[in-house]
Structures
1.
Amino acid sequence: MDSKFHPFVLPFSIGFALMLAVLTVRYVIWLRGLSSDNRKRIRSNFFTVNTWEALVEIFRESLVHLKIYKVNPMLGFMHMSLAFGWFLLIVGGKLETWYYTGDFANEMHYAIFFRYFEPVTSGFWMNGVMVFFMEFALLMVLTGLILALAKRIRKKLMGMQNTTRHSSGNRIALTFLWFIFPLRLFAESATAGQHGGGGFLTANLGAWLFGGDSAASWELPLWWAYSISLGLFFIALPFSRYLHIPTEMVLILLRRWGLESEKGFNPNKGLQAFEVHSCSSCGICLDACPAINIGQEAFQASYFVRGVRENSEVEAKATSCLSCGSCTAICPVGVDVEQLRLDKRSDIFTKARFSHSYLPGSMTLWRDTTEVVLFTGCMGRSNPKTTVAFKALLKEAGLSFVHVDEKDGVCCGRPMALAGALDQSLMMKEYNSNLINGQNGQVLVTSCPICFKYFTEEYNLNIPVMHHSQFLWELMKKGKIKRDSRDLKFAYHDPCELGRGSGCYEPPRSVLAQLGELLPVDKERDKALCCGNNLGSLSLPESDRRQITARTLAVLSANEPDYIVSSCPLCKQTLARQSSVEVKDLAEILLETKPLRVKVPSYSYVHQEAGR
Amino acid sequence: MTKQKVAIIGAGPAGLQSAVSLAELGYEVDLYEKKSRPGGHLAEWHVLFPDMQPAGELLDSLMQKVLAHPQIRLETGVNISGLERAGNSWQLIQSDSVRGEADAVVLASGFKLFEASKKEEYGHGIYPAVISSAELEAIFNREKEWPFEKTNKSPKIGLVHCVGSRDAKCGNLYCSKACCITAVKQAIELKKTFPASEVYCFYMDMRMFGLGYEELYHKAQLDYKVHFIRGRLSEASPSGAGRIQVKAEDTLMGRPLKLTLDMLVLMVGMTASVSPEVKENTVELKEYANKGEFVKIPGAVIGAAQWLKPGLFVAGACKGPATLPEVLNDARATALDLRNYLSGVL
Amino acid sequence: MTKQYFGFSVLEQRSVNLDSEMPAELESLYQKEPSLRACIACGNCAAVCSAGHFAEMQFYRLNVMARRGLLHEMVGKAAACMLCGRCQMSCPRGVNIRHAVLMMSQL
């Protein structure tokens, strides 16, 4: 019999072959679903530096897990130990067989079960390095495994409040995975105990446990068990969440080649399939979710994506979520859950038909030039204080303005898009565009982050668009609005659509820092919690929303601010209703901190104004 | 044997009536009031529904009885922040020191009015022409000026029901009970003051459950020509010269409605004022801060004693929105329960 | 068809007949958005409606139509909605109006 073969390697070989076959079939199906544009992108980017960059990223993210490390060092270390350790074992195994046989092309099982076939190896100093290297890599994986076990038992040890509750199929795959490395350790130790050889781990363990003659009968069963658990894990891999291991690598390549998500909800083909199957259910998104453990439906990204992967009913998950974007912001794999959810929503409401043909055409009359075109949006109508304050500030800065949606405001269309009906917001877009473009203004300022995001991303306006926090900071920088710092403490609430949605974190903070002390908030900027009423959510019950609001308020009020400040009418209204600390818009605060010597009327001026 | 002592927290209608009833039953009564004057909200009202009796008359008659009774000791400006069980009696804590001791305690801390400016869309605190129903009482009492020109003898006035009540968005699902009838009462008073005015009530449902309420509603329609519109306001916006334009849905017509007013009155509801945190041997009396709840008495419906703990009774509107007759009767009933407790029957 | 005794006669187009069977879709509508049942037709939604400036968009009426089984009438009128969400932000009964309208418009 060939010394490089023993029947116990068969479970591994068969499992591995099956996995390769299934993976190939699945990937081919998904790749065939790529749009023709995406295929072109692959062709044109294949032999470019992008591919190299992708390989670097694969090393950084799929093996060393740098992004997870940044979010949670302990968790990063766990993933790194498992993935990178295993990678080192594979690479080392290959080098080992190459070094000892002088032949690079060895059979796979020969490398995997090398120590069974060659218990004692010799060589110059290189032998010691090889043995040590392999044992070190094994130790690394086992460390990761111990941490993973610890995480199962007490997630708080790993700095996590919530971990994904896995489905039974995934638990089975997980069990096989956990058996692999201890079995490898014991099998190699048994061989070392019986035949000598081995390194600092296996030689010692072998001498201790498997030294005697009676232990001889243990050796082969352990190698069998190791092989079987490997084989079963490989068979389970393409059908479990461990599919993410190879898929994430492919996804990184595809992304670096510039591929874009295909239109519509198709989680079983094209780029979307790779995206959906790249999620490892690591659960980092759970702690980031402002709605975690609230309400009946666990709709967090991890569960939503799993539901999609398993073709189960995810309608309630898709319609409950707030779309605040915190999961997407923190996802170490960069799965675009936001888009996936929107695609699912359009899939759910595919038959919803809206028609806004009743909107009147707007005539562009000749108008005097005006400096500011002000758009306060639908939600702005419920926040007259913000609007009045902002107008008073414009007066203080000596700017002329037109409040363009004061009377016949029409929704910007973003809420329609958030419901997955982007294409049905066209008429609103056209109406608003005509209205704004016809004003002969220099800049469009909106006090609503929802409108702001949509105006900047989906509209083609003839003037620049600014959020009022940005505009107010500009006015302060130019010295058109002057304030002295006061003995006031603020906690700033980042609106989802302004912060994560539009990347605007600094201007409102800069304004507040001029007026008093800006307190740190436990979760802020891209980790900020949603107020609870993001328009992304459709079916989340009122009582759940109130719980989210209460949770967010607790975080905001923790350092006892004098005011909670937001710059979104929706957030402000939501928070103010439940807060015991006064909640104000940035514009209100700026107006109310006006020194008395500045002779500009405050809120009351609106009456004279309207009387003209 | 020395007389048994009862302490009452809050000298509003419930506290005053409890004090009188308990003193008449023979107890020593210590009556503590947080504010500098007794009377609670009753001291702020003008006339009372449905009989248009001046609020001052009722308060005076209660106060006379309180002041005349030798067993009642009234202390104002005392904020009782907690209670501690000491043997069979309760110690009253005022900022960490013991203020007094009693064999039984009546919590009669009443209610707070909903802050009208929380419904920002209605413009309270932004536009002077928008006032709360409590501010209108102050105007009737000549403690405040009308928000429109003195020369205007035919103002148009709108009254909005259910501000801060029956509103999930404010977290208050309950009906404040008294606002509908207050609106009817105030509408009549407005018509009496300005016979040439037009008064519009915007309601969700007219809840005229009390004795004589429906009759007053009828009278408001027939004799005072008050307009009742079933619909909610969307917002108030400035309309020049200090006037207010309101937009509403006229749900009976099924059409939007626009109206320009000289004054808009928001019928503010009742919210909890003190939320007791009950522990083993202590009760902390926490100030309501936008998330408190009315005091819940388990088993109140089946006529169980109105107490939170043995010897700690609760009377009046701190248990939930109530009208004056209800509060006064509740105070009398509490006094009876308390007597049964102290005499060992309960 | 047998003639039923009502004790009075009413033009069929004018009447709401709750004796007739309710459309099956209605149950799924209420199941997916149970908060719809809490509506008391106060009219707040219509008062604040952005689309209501221009069109006949009154959510509370849509809901009444649904409750009376007049689905056809309801679906047509739901199309005017812009989903801006102002109604939902001010609904005193906590109805998830945007979700409800989305489902109504695709019945």
2.
Amino acid sequence: MSNELERLERLEHLAEALKDGFLGTDVIKAKSFVLTRPDGRVGAEFSCEEGQVTLQQRDEQGTTRLALGVSSSGMPQILLTDTEGNVRLSVQLGPKNTPAIQLMDRQGQMRLNIMVAADDTPAITLFDSGGAPRAMFMVDEQGKPVISSRDA
Amino acid sequence: MSTDTSQRLDALEAAFAALSKDSLFDIGAMLLEVVDDNGTSRAQLSGTGLLLFDEDGKPALIAGANNGAAHMTLSNDEPRLVIESSVNDCPRIQLMGARGIPRLDAAVDPRGSPSLGVLDASGRGQAALLVNPRGDGRIFINEGGK
């Protein structure tokens, strides 16, 4: 019986410690939170490493398919990745606070760029498979709308 | 086994049953907070949304959902890129220049027509690319207010 009591007391101490740490608290702080699937594989990770905070979600194969983050320089970014692990869509603020949406092909080449440049001019640019800009839709610094296309 | 011991065991079973729930929120937490090596909050995940902060503690990415609509904002002192699904089910993306003035506006209206507008520094539409409700593709250029 005394053995049972000792075991009970140990459990009670453990439960109390866990209660202080989790139960009833409003905030749980950590450098990393990892969500696992029922089989134990990582499904998502919410972490801060080397000044960069990210929320990453992985598919059934373990490939990161969605990442939201803020870089160490403070720039926010959202990345969508294909099944091969290639980034295909990026939504971000650039180094000069320039908002941009970029769509990439399967080779990782940017094919469509939608952005507001550092001088606040909005532009949509389409690129060929070699990365050369071939068509543009924009409003220039004087407020003049421009549609242009280039040959190869 | 005494009544006292039985009650203590019952209490323990209840406490550990709570801990075995599938998510942290089920055990009472309302906020998950990610901190950097200095202990500074860099991210918060709650029942209403996600907040990511830059190193100065300013919100850089805000995402959430309420009233049946989702939204996401990328900011640097002021909102520069906004993605939202409105309550009317009209998805929209806006890219802003200085002072938060939209310069690019992509949307699908309630009738399902997609449009892409390019605006000048005062927020006036200067060019647009769209498909109207009849399915006709159109490009509009605004030159001198016409």
3.
Amino acid sequence: MSTQSMSFNLRVWRQEGPQEPGRLVDYKVVDISPEMSFLEMLDELNVQLTRKGERPVEFDSDCREGICGMCGLVITGVAHGPLSATTTCTLRMRHFQDGQTIEVEPFRAAAFPVLRDLVVDRTALDRIIQAGGFVSQNAGSAPDGNAIPIPKDDAENAMDAASCIGCGACVAACPNASAFLFTSAKVSQLAYLPQGRPEARRRVASMVRQMDLEGFGNCTNHGECEAVCPKEVSIHHIARMRKEYWKAMLG
Amino acid sequence: MNTFVSLYWSTVGRKFWTALTGICLVGFVIVHLVGNLTLFMGNQAMNDYAYFLETALHGGLRPFGELALLVLFGVHALTALSATLQNRRGRTQGYAVSRPAGGRSHQTLSSRTMVVTGLILLAFLVLHVAQFRFGVGFDWHVTAESAGSAHPVRDVYRTVVEAFHTPLWMGIYLFVMALLGFHLRHGIWSAFQTLGTINTPLRRALFILGAVLAVLLALGFLVLPVYIYAVVDPAGPFQSAPSTLGGAR
């Protein structure tokens, strides 16, 4: 274990409220352990700011173990930072150079208004899920196990899609601020399974319509979303969503 | 709930039209290139091909083809431009620092400049049609029966050869054809992804095959002007009468 301490020059986005103009502000943090997570490093910055009587930097976080999707920052120009398949909270400071200048910005999209500093409103994603509606279920006693045959590949694909934690990094990384990867993951996790088929056509059409109403952009297949996704959700789900959409258009 | 317009003009629905027309246009570009390559077989072969295009289906192929191309190019450009304008509204405040994540990303300079290369190609298309479809041509009577008839055919070979002995035209064509390859490098695989190619190995294969096809098409179109400029005699012989004798129309 390394016992060295690191220091960084931070350039952090500060913004008082949704309507106020924001700007990057320079801070210096010292005595940072390489084992600290990026959020713990920001905690250190906030301790320092609080002692000086300044308002701490606001950012979202919850589980701090990479499973909840609450945290999310654009670090040195990449959503969730330079390490792939990683959330901001599980990114460690050892992945940066000592003395490095690190830019920290909020996820940017017209559909993600900045509330304060690095906190953005991602409820647009919740509304897309709500637009998906319900899944028909038989009420009554518990069904027999394996009563519905599901091919192994379909089950795996549905599970891969369901691993989306809804952090919004795909939107943040997309040059078009498109929410296709998120929406397609939520479509695929049901579309691959027989339980999701009865409402599949209406579901995909409604979710895409809600996605458009929220003001997200189009997918032009850059694939940046997959590269930053902490859960490595594949863009093949986007193609899958389009295939479902064909059925909705023609059906 | 889901109205007709919102279904067929959504971010998903609209891109289907861009992709479908794009694939059709790639098909057209391939046919166009094959037609161009008849020039290597000399003026008889190329003008015979032009005569075929003008007279096939009792002369119906050309108007039908031109209308189809107009619709294909129109729909392709309109849907893509409309999507681009929407994307601009998707992020009003940009990043101070932004860099590609690398790794599994398919982002390339080609993918980021699709609208720019597309608009240049569109402007070129207008120029190209004005030059070779509506521009000055030379009458050529392909067969004995058409000789002296009311339906002479343009000496396409001569028009092309004379155009590509102008360094300016040659430069423009070289530049635009390189851009065409650039446009197709992202366009080909992207169109299949947009149409729902869900198989991941197939997608990766298309990503590579699309690039190969783009390079081959660009090279094919680049070879011709260079060949004409360097090899073909600008003075002919041509099948049409010399323009000084009033053959120009």
